[in-house]
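Subject: Interface between my chains keeps coming out wrong

I've been trying for a while to get a sensible model of this assembly. When I model each chain on its own everything looks fine, but I need the whole thing in one frame so I can look at the contacts. Pasting all components below, labels as-is. Any help appreciated, I'm running out of ideas.
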Amino acid sequence: KAGVTQTPRYLIKTRGQQVTLSCSPISGHRSVSWYQQTPGQGLQFLFEYFSETQRNKGNFPGRFSGRQFSNSRSEMNVSTLELGDSALYLCASSLLQGSSYEQYFGPGTRLTVT
Amino acid sequence: QQPVQSPQAVILREGEDAVINCSSSKALYSVHWYRQKHGEAPVFLMILLKGGEQKGHEKISASFNEKKQQSSLYLTASQLSYSGTYFCGTGGSGSARQLTFGSGTQLTVLP
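Reply #2:
Try treating it as a single job with all components included. I did that and got this:
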């Protein structure tokens, strides 16, 4: 079974621009969560989507948004990029079977803002 | 509230054992353990749910003490491939499924 895929893997943007990252979950998984990883702040939760609905949102500004499509693929968008947005963005998919909800991470998108 | 991991770093020789702890100030519903190697995504190791269960995966096992609000990851007879940063993530129940991660424990296994 194919794992979580994320595109693009690397991205360089300039301050003020916007960016869209894509995530395809494991087949059959309907929950997609997004995390930001930086050396200073570690792994931080951005938001979770399930069946095209945002279920949870982390403590990030409104410049960070996302959506999920009917095929469970998800995108996240960051508008008006700031230098501090440079990070590894990880998405994780989950089957949400019963009370157990293992999350499997994709390889991430390394975003550099200059 | 971010869980606290200890130690922050540990260096050991192949074949030695290690324990990594994860403590939370909030009541825990689940604890998720991941290993991340440099430049790679975190890899899921195991999940422990409220109930004090212990799980094992080859030579890696973990315990979950809900009364103490902590979990421990046990690595026995370490192999070189065990090197990496270990993260614990704590999750809530119901719709609060997002994980709150500790700052990680860097494990280095030397030959």
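Reply #3:
Confirming on my end. The mean pLDDT of chain B is 89.
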